[in-house]
């Protein structure tokens, strides 16, 4: 009887081991790095980009290679940038690798002059991208606004997770708004922090109306000493209305773009929205009253 049980147990263990090995193999396929290359790169430009990304041309079979066309770039950017800015050639390239759960998004840029790593991180969290190493490169100095399209498409292919058109639109909109604000402020880091702070407060408060969102924008302007025009205020409010419809989780947001939110914490900036603060105060009052009545 004991021998029969031992044989049965051994069979179960072997089956479990085989399943584990199969899962490991499946994960290895899924975690294959994705390389999104601009479709209009010349041979020499491609070599330069691969060098910057740390990819050897004779090892491309170790990557899942996809291409982003200028048509793809225009699809998402035409509503926010002049066609002359987007250009007629797709040159931005992106290497994306999955990280362990909870490690967040980490972005590195090379030959990107307009968009910063923080801007990409902010926008990618809005798109719903999680736990990824992202390297963005150009063959020479380029703005990099179109690279977000390649990053989102590559992430979808790599994970099998669909990024909705609404999420892609909001993320692209955010990148452009932040880039323009950084240009106006002459301070990329402050622009990143400003948009990140507004986004967190809007989501914390579930602020849907422009009136509530404008209240938060004004509060954040004061907190970070940022002066914006009425037109910029309107653009940010419209962006935040889009973002609040995406069902994003505030804690996930802070985890994925931890560099930005950790910096805000170091600056002792309270990221809790005004309505969330009121709710917290009221909860404390009700708790105190309940204690007195017991």
From TrEMBL:
Tell me if Coiled coil is a UniProt keyword of this record: yes
> Does the keyword field hold Coiled coil?
yes
Signal peptide positions (record): 1-26
The family database entries (Pfam families) matched by this protein are listed as: DUF1002
InterPro entries, A to Z: DUF1002
Keywords carried by this UniProt record: Coiled coil, Signal
What is the top-level taxon of the source organism? Bacteria
Q: Which residues form a coiled coil?
A: 229-263
The identity of this protein, by name, is DUF1002 domain-containing protein
Taxon lineage: Bacteria, Bacillati, Bacillota, Clostridia, Lachnospirales
